Amino acid sequence: MLTRRIIACLDVRDGRVVKGVQFVDLIDAGDPAALAHRHAQEGADEIVLLDITATHEGRGTLLDTVRRTAASLFVPFTVGGGIRTAADAEAVFTAGADKVSINSAALARPKLIGEIGATFGSQAVIVAIDARRDTDSDHPAQNARVYTHGGRKDTGRTAVEWAREAEDRGAGEILLTSMDSDGTRSGFDCELTAAVSAAVRIPVIASGGAGTVAHFADVFGAGKADAALAASIFHFGVSTSRSLKEELAKSGIPVRFPC
Amino acid sequence: MQWLYAASTEAPDQPGLAYFPETLERFPEGDQKVPHVGWNQLNPKATSRLLQGVADSEFAYFTHAWRAPITAATAAATDYIVPFASAVEQDNVFGVQFHPEKSSETGLKILRNFLEIQ
Fold it and tell me: What ipTM goes with this model?
């Protein structure tokens, strides 16, 4: 049976993990490569490395980080953050990434999706969407709007419509972050996730709001998510992807367990 | 693995190597999503050399929308919408639909098996 995926996300700045799951017994808990390997060992189905480096010098560091991480990582590995051109994507793939995640660059120039896909395949292109409910609408989740610049800029598009266009242009997956839920630990936005998931044929990864095991069960059930991104969940009574998946398996959610 | 087959509806004008005579088809549209992306289970044939030591229901990572039919050469079957061949094996030719390099310990075991086949 095809299982729902638990994806561990690491935020990296200048080659160091700044947010995400830490393991106290790691000698270097800030090293992305060490953390990615540890996550894979602990049962994560996939690893996402999100580069939040703002400087040009940091980009070189990122490629080195990707290279070191990919060298002995044997689960799918996605790299996002700062990928603006097909050449940027190629550099990340050459360093060992399996997929790239693109966000504002795809909104600014949607052709980028197809350009990367033409060379590396649709499966390698994740379009990340940051969405916020439209509280003025009669259907706030269905009409949730897409934002960029950390939520400061309204693109004027709905998440459902942009996800459809991204799919038509050759995206392989959608990484959907609810800006309303992000950081709240009060649960994923299941209504938003379900609206986007129903609109496309490609997998939708839910992100934002994880706080408990039940939140994951909800987003895989009512939210119709194909995968869920986990970061701070591991600080709240569940120590690893493995124990999260064990709990989900008990409640009847198909997951890769034992893992 | 797909180019070992005679043809695919993905590219009707482009013949494959035809080591296996069948034609690949896209998963049928329905309630479940196509492409098939994620971790799914293998049901290996006990006699498979490539899948020695791989237990029934071990997981591998897939990402594809076309699939090969179950035949005598099928070394492992996987179920998604319909059962399909997730590994094929005949004489000294081996193919896998999943990504062994991204399938954790199970994938590494299969790659090791391949290297050690006499």
Answer: 0.95
